[in-house]
Amino acid sequence: MSNAAKTTTANAKPVVTRIAPSPTGDMHIGTARTALFSWLYARARGGKFLLRIEDTDRARSTPEATQGILDGMAWLGLDYDGEAVSQFEQAARHAEVAQQMLAAGTAYKCFATQDEIEAFREQARANKTSTLYQSPWRDADESTYPDAPYVIRMKAPRDGATVIRDQVQGDVTIKNDQIDDMIVLRSDGTPTYMLAVVVDDHDMGVTHVIRGDDHLANSARQMMVYDAMGWDLPVYAHIPLIFGPDGKKMSKRHGATGVKEYQAMGYPAQGMRNYLARLGWSHGDDEFFSDAQAMEWFDLDGINKAPARFDTKKLENICGQHLAVMEDAQIMSEIDAYLFASAQPALTPAQKSRLNAALYCLKGSAKTYPQLIEKARFALNQRPVDVDEKAQKHLGAVSNGILEELTPHLQSASWNRDALEAAVGRVMDAQDIGFGKVAGPLRAALAGRAQTPSVLDMMFVLGQEETLARISDAVQE
């Protein structure tokens, strides 16, 4: 069956996508975007989205990194079907497939030593010919096999070309004389990544492989395993990498690159999903959209071929728009998670109650959770309120007189915003002063800051008893 025919067959199956990160460090934001694309594609089509932990690098894989992947997926809201699969635990299955290919004659035992391979390459460099290793054991008679360690290599095609039919990059042609007889089983019996990833994708029923375009060249080699085993090819979609503002591959020099770093910086997950979806994929000119819209609109043909540039200002703008429309309960839940992720103390029940009451006047002007919490300091602070230097300038004999005159109006006011505004208005009229002359000392008394939410909103959220107590504290200092 031709590769094109196999791809057609794969398209007829229920969609199954996967994300397969390696637990050798923090989950990269690029991996998160790939996971998001795979999740959107599967969920929109009633398919499955799977998670595989590619932990075959035992020296570098850590339980902490694995947990970081699971935590990152949970924070982003990318639910996956079934349990996470460990690639390392499938090693016996990978080796079984290598032996099957060996028995079928599509792979062979290679007894070449490292010294012999290096000598071949040195000679090739001297002759200015290809350094791809041409093993003398490819067609050797079994009777000539020595009693020595060996690897199992695939028999790569020597002539013609391999065409990768990619949904993002288009048809990519690689000449077969550029593909080596790759090792699929090492001399110690352990499988290589190139074998393991194909066997796992096949066994997990993956129909669509969506991954970074740094894996594009690997596809030609991995297709050899599919062909050798008579397995249907998946649909490939290799997405461009994420670049920093300077047009270079995103790395630590650009700032945060790990998913947990963005959670610890307080970006709302809903906003992060929106921004990552828009990073390298487009639906007309739409910038701000919901998960439901993303699922409805997302398709592989909307992915750009050119690398996307990460823009923190755009991320913050999108996050701010999401915070403004998010349900209060969701915001409170994510604030708890943010405080934990950033190793900050949890809020007390009383602080949670006040913060929840204050969200209506805060969430429309914040872009991240740290910004929201900073604006909510008036609700989170305990008496006596610490007044900073700028706010202290609004307190004094004159302002104390204004606050003292305001106090009885507040004591008799119905505690709603209109009544509070009327109480402040009566003092303004009596003193023949503008709103700022009342608001300045009120900000200092209630929040200890010169920049705060509306004083009317602060009084409403704090309640009558707490508002009057804070004003009394300020007047008596």
- Please give the share of residues in helix: 40-55%
Helix count from the secondary structure assignment: 21
Classify the secondary structure makeup into a structural class.
mainly alpha
The main sheet orders its strands as 1-2-3
Q: What is the CATH third-level topology name of the domain at 381-476?
A: Arc Repressor Mutant, subunit A
Q: What's the main sheet like?
A: 3 strands, parallel
Per DSSP E runs of 2 or more residues, the count of β-strands stands at 12
- 3D shape: elongated
Rg value: 31 Å
CATH architecture of the domain at 381-476: Orthogonal Bundle
Weakly predicted, low-confidence segments: 1-11
What is the averaged pLDDT score? Answer: 93
Please report the distance between the alpha carbons of the first and last residues.
Answer: 87 Å
CATH class of the domain at 381-476: Mainly Alpha
Please indicate the percent range of residues in DSSP E strands (runs of 2 or more): 5-15%
Short description:
The chain has 477 residues and is mainly α. Helix content is 49%, strand content 10%. The protein starts with a helix and ends with a helix.
Lay out the secondary structure.
Elements (H helix, E strand, L loop, with lengths): L2 H9 L4 E4 L9 H16 L3 E6 L9 H14 L8 E2 L4 H14 L2 E4 L3 H14 L23 E4 L6 E6 L3 E6 L7 E3 L7 H11 L4 E5 L3 H14 L5 E5 L2 E2 L15 H6 L4 H10 L12 H7 L10 E2 L2 H14 L2 H14 L7 H14 L6 H7 L1 H4 L8 H4 L4 H15 L5 H15 L3 H13 L7 H8 L1 H13 L1
Parallel strand pairs: 1-2, 2-3, 9-10, 11-12
Antiparallel strand pairs: 4-5, 5-8, 6-7
Helix pairs in contact: 4-6, 6-7, 9-11, 13-20, 17-18, 17-19, 17-21, 19-21, 20-21
Organism: Pacificibacter marinus
Protein name: Glutamate--tRNA ligase
Subcellular location: Cytoplasm
